[in-house]
Design brief:
- By secondary structure, the chain is mainly β.
- It is built from no helices and 13 strands.
- Strands 1-6-5-3 form a four-stranded mixed beta sheet, with no helix packed on it. A four-stranded mixed beta sheet has the order 7-13-12-9, with no helix packed on it. Strands 8-11-10 form a three-stranded antiparallel beta sheet, with no helix packed on it.
- The protein is rod-shaped, with a radius of gyration of 31 Å.
Length: 191
């Protein structure tokens, strides 16, 4: 049986009257005295963990004991990726690229909350985004690997800036030949 790291899986079978159950090892089990405990194992390695659980079922009326075992393969969760790309954008910017460190066989679910649209790359490790109006936005991605295990969601927060509209300069708007010396124009200070 295969399971992803940190995902609970019920093992065993329905209880039988007059039977007492003992599972070993008890690591990862919610209750080793149940006929069908839930095992939750966190695999922090980069390779699958293989576990073998054994159950002993004793008939309390006859004292007969039966044993069985099962093997469990626990796949590691994909690492949460860091999203690479710009966080300060001009409105109307097109085809802005974002990416994560991709792994063969993985699928990536991207989501953009805010003023913009993902135009290419959904499902891949890189996307292109077009931005609209000035506002804050959040880009997120979740990886599902070839074993069906899902990463934590990675986030990137950014802002689409307002268009800069400098004010018109103050000064004469008519110039005559020969009078162009000493003319000054000033642009009011803006933030």
């Amino acid at each position: 049986t295969n399971v992803c790291s940190g995902v609970g899986l019920q093992i065993g079978s329905s209880p039988i009257n007059n039977y007492v159950y003992t599972w070993s090892p008890i690591n990862g089990l919610n209750d080793p005295s149940l006929s069908d405990p839930t095992v939750t194992w966190v695999n922090n390695d980069s390779v699958p963990d293989t576990l073998t659980y054994q159950v002993e079922a004793m008939d309390t009326l006859t004292s007969c004991i039966q044993t069985d075992s099962m093997q469990l393969v626990v796949f590691p969760s994909p690492d949460s990726n860091i999203i690479i790309g710009p966080v300060s954008i001009c409105p109307g910017a097109d085809s802005i690229s974002y990416s994560v460190k991709g792994k063969p066989g993985s699928n990536y679910y991207w989501e953009l909350t805010g003023p913009g649209i993902i135009i290419d790359g959904q499902g891949l490790d890189s996307i292109l985004v077009n931005y609209d109006t000035a506002n804050v936005w959040t880009l997120s991605v979740t990886e599902t690997d070839s074993n069906g295990c899902t990463s934590d969601t990675a986030y990137l927060h950014g802002k689409t800036n307002p268009l800069l509209e400098p004010p018109a300069p103050n000064g004469s708007d008519t110039l005559c030949t020969g009078s162009m010396v000493g003319i000054n124009y000033q642009v009011p200070y803006t933030h």
